[in-house]
Structures are given as C-alpha cells and as structure tokens.
Amino acid sequence: MTLITPSVTGRTIDIDASVKSINDAVAQGKHTIPIVMQETQPAVPDNVTAQQLGITQKIQEQTSYFYGSPAARIQNIQTAAARFDGVLVAPGETFSMGQTLGDVSLNSGFAEALIIYGNRTITGVGGGVCQVSTTLFRTVLNAGFPVVERVPHAYRVHYYEETPSGVDDPNLAGMDATVYFPLVDFQFRNDSQYWILMETHLGSDYLTWQFYSTSDGRNVTINTTGPQNIVPAPPASFVKILICHPIRK
C-alpha cells in the first residue's frame, strides 16, 4: 500500500469526567478548570502494512463502460470515482457510498448533466455518479459481500448495459445502483475477517473498480433471464419551464 495521508490521533472531550472535574473545582473555589480530554487512536495507523490488515491479493474486479458520454458526465464520473480510490473498509463495517462520496455540488468539482428525478430525465448536478455506484454494486455482488441497501434506476439506462465492444448486453439490465444521498444510498457489509482496500481506475470510456483483501473461498454464481415483461417507453414529452422575474419600478 502507498500512504496517501498520514494518520492523526484524535481528541474528544470526556463529558462525564469533565463535569465531575468542574463540580469538584467549583466546590474548592477554583476559577480555572481544565477540560478532561481523551485521545482516540486511528483505526489504521500510517505504519501498518497491508499484510497486517489481511490485504494480500486482488479478490474482485469489475468494469463498466460509458461510450458516448458527454464531457460533463465524464467529469462527474471522474470526480466521484476519485473519492473512493484507496479507501479501506474494516472487517464487520457497513460501508456507505453516500457518506464517503460527500458533497455533490458545483463547488466540489461536479458539473450539470442528465439525471433521473421523479421518473423524468432532467439536468442536475452530478449526472453520471450512478456509473460509479453501479460499478461498485457489481464489484460487491461478484465478490460475494452482503448488499445492505441498493436502489435501481426508475428505468433502463443503456450506459449500464454497455460491453467492451460498445454493444449493449440486455443481461446487464437491472444490474445497476443509484445514489442520491442522503435520500438514496448504496451500502454493503464487509462480513469477512479481513480489511478491504478499494481502488478505482478511470479510462476515457470505462471505469474499473478493484477489491484487494484475502479470499476466504466464497464463490458467487449469478444467473439472469434478461429483461422480462418489457413495457414500451411512452412517447417523448418535453416540459418547458418559464422563469418569471419581478418587474422593478
């Protein structure tokens, strides 16, 4: 592993001990009362080795493709994916993608692109982030870790069915996950005894997500019938939004 950020020892206030210290000091007529602090050591110190965390091999890798995506969508995929590169998931931890993703706004490097909102396709900040959540979902699923929370899109999006050749594979329909935090999240649990190191790699038209840990021998078999009971899409409907400005006198 390569150290990205040095570990930091945290400090928290011991409320109970501080209250007792204050009461005792007041009873003694003291005017200067120190607050009782506790040190919190990092879960992973910066001198730990991968072997000590049980990270010895690549256990899973999944790639999704987004041929033909506009520049704004690619920017959002790149910005979101970078936030997960090098992230560790502890044994027993339930990992929340939304919490790690953090703020999705124009100020945090995201752009406006098409999103699905209220069963409609509209322009919104962060369009394309679901390419990242979909890739993570497939990595988790194929690695055999329990999925705690996962929400599919309201309707099919061809980006999530693309193959390396650029041809859509209908068997990938439904193998997607959307994130609109805090309302919608994707979560999985690391139920193994080893840490997981996640790495993301972005190409011009693909995103690869890798899990490094130690295999415990679990195997995953995924069967799909492909789309069933297909409902034709309704005719396209465009909504014009009028913005009224107050008349200044």
Q: Which value, in Å, is the CA radius of gyration?
A: 24 Å
Described by strand count, sense and barrel closure, the largest sheet is:
4 strands, antiparallel
User: H/E series, N to C?
Assistant: EHEEHEEHEEHEEEE
Number of distinct helices: 4
Helix share of residues? 10-25%
- Low-pLDDT sequence parts: none
| First and last CA, distance | 65 Å
Given the C-alpha coordinates, what overall shape results? globular
Into which percentage range does the β-strand content fall?
15-25%
Average pLDDT score: 89
Structural class: alpha+beta
Cross-sheet strand order for the largest sheet: 3-11-10-4
Number of strands: 11
Walk me through the structure.
The protein contains four helices and eleven strands; from the N terminus they run E-H-E-E-H-E-E-H-E-E-H-E-E-E-E. The chain is α+β, with helices and mostly antiparallel strands and 249 residues long. The strands form four sheets. It has a four-stranded antiparallel sheet with strand order 3-11-10-4. The protein has a three-stranded antiparallel sheet with strand order 5-9-8. Helix 2 packs across helix 4. The protein is globular and about 80 Å long. The termini are far apart. The relative contact order is 0.18.
Would you summarize the structure shown here?
The protein is an alpha+beta fold and 249 residues long. It is built from four helices and eleven strands.
SSE arrangement:
Layout: E1 10-13, H1 15-27, E2 37-40, E3 57-65, H2 71-82, E4 88-89, E5 94-96, H3 97-101, E6 112-117, E7 120-125, H4 129-143, E8 147-149, E9 187-189, E10 196-202, E11 206-213
Antiparallel strand pairs: 1-2, 3-11, 4-10, 5-9, 6-7, 8-9, 10-11
Helix pairs in contact: 2-4
